[in-house]
User: Fold these one by one.
Assistant:
Number 1:
Amino acid sequence: MADSHADIDKHVRVYKIVFGALFVLTIATWAVAYLDLGVAGGIAVALLIASVKASLVACYFMHLISEKKLIFLVLAFTVFFFVGLLLLPFFASMDPIEY
Amino acid sequence: MSMEIPYTVSPRPDTGLTNGKIAIWLFLASEVMLFGALFATYIILRVGAAEWPDGRTFLSVPLAFINTLVLIASSMTMVMAWASLMRGNFSRYRVFMALTVLGGVGFLIIKYLEYSAKFQHHYYPSTNNFLAIYFTLTGLHALHVIGGMVLNAYMWGPGAKLWKTNPTWFTNRVENAGLFWHFVDLVWIFLFPILYLL
């Protein structure tokens, strides 16, 4: 709550820019889906745009850009386990059950 | 006997954060794992399937596109609600918070239209694996939207009494409610391309 009115005005200006960027990137997500990029290319581009949008929301709307160290520590653990969770299917496919 | 909750207004000296802020981030971390498990399930189902339908053949991309914009707009009104409190403008806060709740209502109405169309075409979770994971992910997400709306409506209505007695605590609460709402938006940002476009 240490932010002055001038600081908040600055925040609001940034929020408006982020909102505009999210709007444009959402249109881009839709448009890109209709380009013929192949399955892998389509997935990569769609996930890249989604990641940029998610980063904008997390950094600016969720104030991560100016957050304290402890929150990043919590998030580092979260990312580690989240990535592990998503990799589980690949670990499983590398070591299939023999029938 | 009343016991005051510590560090709701001023940050804890060792963490530099209010307890509420740490609590909501820990909760969001658990939420990431919940949705992560379902995203991993999606990958297993998709990679293991001999054929996977194009989402566009079952789902309405225009409706999902509009819903994405609705959620993004409601995230914007949520931060504006918080910024209004930081400026000490309570009546403006009320307007932005009401718009945020209305954004949630709009999202659910569109979702209802989408689900109704699926059921009319006899598309159910039991129809195939794609629809099973679609209904599970979007249904769980919709429950989160409802949860966020209940919280935001409380902050707009009865919970707003706190503004008169402890404005800083109330502002911190609204920021934490906002963190949950933005997380709901964030999950949808991934659901939209994964389910509808790929």
Number 2:
Amino acid sequence: MMRIKSNNPVVVGLAVLILLFFLHWIGLTRGLEGALSSLIQPLSGKLYSWSSSISSSYSDNQDIAYLQAEIARLKGEVVDLTVANSSFLEIAQENNKLRKALDFQDNKDVSAVIASIIAKEQAGEDRRDLVINRGSQDGLRPGLGVINEDGMIVGKVMEVKDRTAKICLATSPGCRLAAAVQNQLKTQGLTDGDLGLTIKMSYIPQLEKIAQDDLVITSGLDGDIPRGFVIGRVTQIINESNEVWQEATIEPLINFDNLTVVSAIVP
Amino acid sequence: MLNKVWQPLFFIVIATASAIWQWSFIYALTDLFGQFNLVLIVLMFTLFFFDFSSAVLVAIMSGFWLDILGFNFFGFYLIVLFVTSIFSEWLLANWLTNRSLYSFIVLIIISTLVYNLLVYGLQSFSSTEISGIVIFKKHFWISLGYQVAWSILAALFLFNFASSATRRLKPFFLSDK
């Protein structure tokens, strides 16, 4: 008959595993897990920023030709934007005067929780989520929008723990956002990440007119994500006459590899 | 060699450091470098050059850290690393009976395959993001290929490192002189 020795590593290991599962299940280790997680957050943040800077310098070196073309394109764009900006400044000043006159409430009444990224997690074939050092104890909950320092959408909160939260990138499949195109008709739709590289906007009615380079912003229909945060720019429109909806490919305006600090928008 | 008192402490520190380094640093690297599986390499090194008890300790410590830091269900990495260590010990005891570089490379390759099958198997049960049978997906085999390549490189380095530290791994010949 087979005898099981009490000092057999498999038996001891299994006993420890069952004990850990049980203690976690009844919540006894929760404090310890939270404390350990907080304890290593500064170190994790440091390691992540090293790793992130190595990755971005590696990819920058690979893309020199692309970057040179991008610089030429952006120089042209700066000239156009400078002209456009001067007229917008006029409009903004006029708008402020009118708001004051009407005692208009600012609809962007939101606060932001600033967080450092401490890790990346592979969550699927084309999906890499970010882990930030703020969690439910800081008021975060699933569904909140996450922006970078320029106020552009990075993604949204998917899961929260006491002291950490996982956010999906807007380019990751399954990361859906209610969006609107900044055109005459304020066309609305739903964005979803595409292959971890671009964003696809779907459910756009066939009759709506959208154009390349139109800006896409959050529509505010998500509930937890206010209207007006930039998601990206339309680069391609897919319009099949036999389809009910048309689709658009959106290029994000931020480099997700260089992110180290983000803010979760708490409405 | 380490004495019996310090050895468990040494493995706890090594397992903790490798899990934190893996989670915060390696996963954030680009695809090619991000596939380096430090935790598994440390586990296999411990199993091959030390003993199964130490490997179980490393599996549990690394698994615990990865579970409290990550967003899979609690126990995900504990199960994956514990089962991988048991399978590898069985392989080492029954198939790879000598302590050579070739044995170490075979052990590391097969354990990488087992580890990945367990990770994707458990993820397909617990996550809605993964659908279909993983072994039919190109992504799985590309990722496995990268990991195996890194593991072989690590095996070559670690075996040479270990053989310079101990005489046990050096070949010897029976001579009639």
